[in-house]
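Limitations
The structure tokens in this dataset are predictions for the assembled complex, not deposited experimental models. Users should treat interface geometry with appropriate caution, especially where small molecules or nucleic acid strands are included. An illustrative entry is reproduced here so readers can see what is and is not provided.
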Amino acid sequence: MEFKVDQKVRYSKTHEWVRVEGGEAVIGISDYAQNKLSDVVFVELPPAGKELKAGAACLVIESVKAAEEVFAPVSGSVVGRNEALEKSPELVNSDPFGQGWLVRVKLAVPAEIDSLMDAAAYTSYLSTL
Amino acid sequence: MNESAELRKTPLNEVHRAAGAKMVDFGGWDMPVQYETGPREEHMRVREAAGLFDIDHMGRLEISGPHAVEFLQRVQTWDISLLKPGRAHYSMILNDSGGILDDIFVYHRTDSWLVVVNASNAPKDTLWLKSHASGLDVSIKDLRAETCMAALQGPAARAVLQALGPKEDLESIGYHHVVERTFAGARVTLCTTGYTGEPGYEILMPAQGCEKFWNAILEAGAPRRLIPCGLAARDSLRAEACLPLYGNEIDETTDPLSAGLVRAAVRLEGHDFIGRRALAALALSPLPRVLVGFEMKEPGVPRHGYSIASGGRVVGKVTTGLFSPSTGKYVGMGYVETGLAGVDTEVSIVIRDAHKAAQVVERPFYTSPHWR
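Predicted assembly:
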């Protein structure tokens, strides 16, 4: 199966993506991840101001199958939440790199981005799974 | 993967894989949990048009012989003396203490009885039934090898089948019947039963050529938006209709009274079945807990095994929970202390240590407008 890989974001091994915009970063899950989850029915977002720690569970996505934790790919405090997911959690499935974004954070350690995979590395990582 | 080699496969396994289904281990069977369409769309398609399910994992036993009726009256809860040839009824197999060994469907065919049982319980049921057949002239035959079983469900199901057998009478078959018909050259047993809350059919077809028949149904149904559907949609459909799932709402530690299934499955008068005395005794005193339906007042997904609380105290357990695609609500079923079972009672569901508000509501969560 072919999965979309956004060329402009960085990826974690647990299939979260990060798009850096100035000192902030938008976080979501990859097309591969949403496909594995199956239909998303609820997203439990962290409150604004919450400090996320890279590698630690930061929110829960509930699919028809199960509740799955999402791990913060970078550290930072939550400055934005995708409120549209409350009414339309299926955006995570239909547009994982766009309207299905999860949270926006103010980066605490910008250098953490460098340890994440770029699109080429993530594409070859997917081919090993 | 190697372990999948040990899973049991239905004769439609290759068809599912070729169609891009995600396969899962379902009680030892390699079954499609969803197709590329996805569970939500598959669910809605059954509500609005039609869906085709592989249910070949279901156990099916043919009961025949001079003592077939006597035997069935002993081992299951519905009084089948009320069941005319061509009719079908929901029923249960109980143990001596009234615990539910399985929920079943009993079909009265012309010369025999068909008993459809849950896949996971089939080996247990077969042993139980055989052990209670001693001294009776009755034959219990496993039909799995020679038949394949599929379910065609949804408001367009009849039109789809009619396209395959233009001369066959389908119009006059009421709900909960069993008939023999010919479609696309195959003689099939057509049961007007299902597990989705929609009108439709469960079809026993000859195992030989079943792939062809499956594809013929899909082809005939394509203009009416028929798609193949997986177990995920089957589960959300049955949950919205509040049809119990063995292992969730019912098991050997639950009884038909607490599950609220006496009217649907049990005739306490008329025949003496295993578990009847225990049930009659249970009916004399208040039940400690009963099954209810609930709706989340705060968003969140209740799941099997979660605690139900009231006033900070655990008062029950969730048996099934889901986002209901047809109603757009988060709903579930569960056992609660009887005093808290009244409709509108406020409870909470404990989701990851947070108490989320919920309310007891009428069941089912969804009633199809397509029953005639």
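Some entries come with short summary sentences. For this one: Chain A touches chain B at residues 1, 38-39, 41-42, 44, 60, 62, 64-67, 86, 90, 93 (CB under 8 Å).
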